Amino acid sequence: MKLGRRGVVTGLLAAPAVAKAGPQPWTFDAYSRAMAASGRRQVIKAEEWKVAIARKPRMLATIQFLLTHHFGNADPEIMRAFTEVPREYYHYRYDEKVDFAAVAYEDESKPWRIGLGSALSDYRGQAYMTQLCQPKAGDRALEVGTGSGFQISILSRIVERAYSIEIIEPLGNAVAQIFKPLGYENVETRVGDGYFGWPEVDGGFDVVIVTCVAPHVPPALLEQLKPGGRMVIPMGQPFKREQFLYVFTKDEDGTVSSRKDIGIYFIPMTGALQSAKR
User: Fold this and answer.
1) pLDDT tens, 59-72?
2) Whole-prediction pTM value?
3) Is 121 a catalytic residue?
4) Which residue segments constitute the domains of the chain, with CATH numbers given?
5) CA–CA separation, 22 vs 20, rounded Å?
6) Which of 38, 109, 118, 121 is an active site residue?
7) Rounded to whole angstroms, what are the CA distances from 220 to 90, 138, 140, 226, 248?
């Protein structure tokens, strides 16, 4: 994902203190153990890792400024989640089977290729979409498009249960292994077509977040959105710049409302939606 012009951050605020993340305490050794447990090859060395995570407070300050600018405040729970989740752990290229953690927490946030046709979205966009979803303790959240696993990890630190679907089988199978080494036991993933949602989850979802662009809203996702729930989805044409986030809400009586939000750019949703257009 990449935010449009209205999402540009031009200043910084003081960053919150960096909390311990992942296995406690979060050190280079803990990072190395988690990488090994997830079955991924690590190339970053201790000194490079220390240099990378030293930039994290600037990322947090950027996020705090962005959320305050757009929403009037930065949700403390969202700031806590971005503080706790170690973004460098998700900087991994699954085609080359190697980490690129050394460039985590870059000042100029941007999407990063992770291979197999997927990308790690820029952290400004992920923070914006997270607050737009309004996740709360006790919620159940569904993500369509697991990708690197970072976005669902952020949500999992806030909600009670987090579910994520990835259509690219080798990527979905590999990323499914990264959550338990961090102690994220409330994350459940599957390989499948997110167009159909996750109907086996009884009662549906309080939060639905889609991380790929679609020309229309998948009906199953609206059906699985709980009354009082909120869905954020990029809509527009694939590989075109005229894409926007849309926010869908469902009233207690089941009435669905929507509004257009900021301009963005995402890779397209594939699977049943793409096949239906042919």
Assistant:
1) 999 999 999 999 99
2) 0.89
3) yes
4) 2-276 (3.40.50.150)
5) 7
6) 121
7) 29, 22, 16, 12, 13
